[in-house]
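LAB NOTEBOOK - FOLDING QUEUE
OPERATOR: T.R.
BATCH SIZE: 2
PURPOSE: Compare the predicted structure-token outputs for two unrelated chains run back to back under identical settings.
PRIORITY: normal
REVIEWER: second-year student, initials M.K.

ITEM 1
FIELD SEQUENCE / FIELD STRUCTURE:
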Amino acid sequence: MAQQSTVAATQPVEKTNFIITLLRGAGQVMFQGNAWTGLFFLIGIFWGSYATGNVLVAWGSVLGLVTSTVTGYILGLPHTDGKQGLWGFNGILVGCAFPTFLGSTLWMWLALIMCAAMTTWVRTGLNNVMAPWKVNSFTFTFVLSTWIFLLAARVMKGIPVELSVPALPIELFKTADGLHFVDLVVWWLKGVAQVFLVDNWVTGALFLIGLACSNWWSVLWAAFASAVSLFVILVLRGPATDIAEGLYGFSAVLTGIALGSIFYKPSWRSALWAFVGVIATVFVQAWLNLCLEPLGLPALTGPFCITTWLFLLPLLKFKSKEDIDHSKWDHRKFKIKNS
């Protein structure tokens, strides 16, 4: 998830506290290998989960994070990845998703452990496949693995499916008269919170604080992307329920962070590119929601992955040849951010 670095994966890496590794894994969901960021993310998840009455999401996130991280150690994968938390970010998302979409049974929790562990080696495999195109799998490892388990659960009575995907067409906003500034702020913050499938505006605020602990460009792009996506879907009269829950914001937030602050050095050209990418993500979100509706599957962070791949594959350069940009990205090298 992290951008290019001068530190090679083969270079010896000092030992890192296991808790720090876990916290960095939480932070890497938004490209931040920073333990303080990860801590605020976990606090946000727990706050939102308890506030919405879905406490199992919080504990599922911890179980998924620990499982995927430990799997990396067991498999003997490059410790550079582990130190930065790159084994954990897909696992924590699996841990949030399973209690959200599946009923709480022993088999659900065992499936969560299996899926979270699976993301660690699937990520490695997908990165190997995507390396020639100078992109990595991002959170698509989580998306693909979770889709498999959610569909499989439909034929397994031991794992009850509680997935609720709204039928189309959905009621649209017919007027802006009923919109208030407070509503817009809540929906804006929920767009950030939904990165971890949490429907709570306080969680979104905690996530922004966490990002501010690591990278000011990232927090600015997260806030801006959520606002832009909210504006676009309101203007285009999108599904009211989805808008109110921030479901058109979270993939746009990840796209904005990736294009605006991680894979390109901030500049007016890269900012414009990221801005267009954020808007495109809204359309990809609507398209993927429609495609998956017959299957009863959530899009998860699929729209972010698809859009960011489409915007990185051209290998555009926006500044001088010496500057870091995506065209120089090497999947074997990562930037280690101290926390």
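ITEM 2
FIELD SEQUENCE / FIELD STRUCTURE:
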Amino acid sequence: MSDSYFYETYDTPLGNVTMIASEEAILTVHLGEGVPQGCIHEENRILFQAIEEFNQYCAGQRETFDVPCSPMGSEEEQKVLSFVKKSIPYARLSTYETIGAKLGMSPEHVEGILSSNSCPILIPCHRVIRANGKLGTYVAESSLKKKLITFERTRNLEILEEGLE
């Protein structure tokens, strides 16, 4: 196992995305541009796969991500992130309340965990809303969460290309 971390920033219909990866998995997806400290600016096979899958998703050609993803977080946070990744299909929504009930956590705790998801989109926390229909928090701008939900439901590529509010 290598101790090297690699990053790549590239332009997507959602704006710039910076991904950090080890040799084994994506560790972080940052919605924006950045130069992560201690990382090598070099694409590796994991970054290549993630970028390819991300581009397919943005083109409406992919519903799930196969690239290995290893987000940061405690065991409890990993449990919530894993549940979201495996349990909420493309273009469907769940609620913090539903997830909390299934995992024995309060909705507020689930929302807090998902609002710090280090691998957004790859782990689709944008598909989780409040029981009252409000979006709730998101790791990026709430307008992006709304845009992703709408895009998945319509596959209208123009939605991704519109500027954020």
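REVIEWER COMMENT (ITEM 2): The longest strand covers residues 6-12.
FOLLOW-UP: none requested
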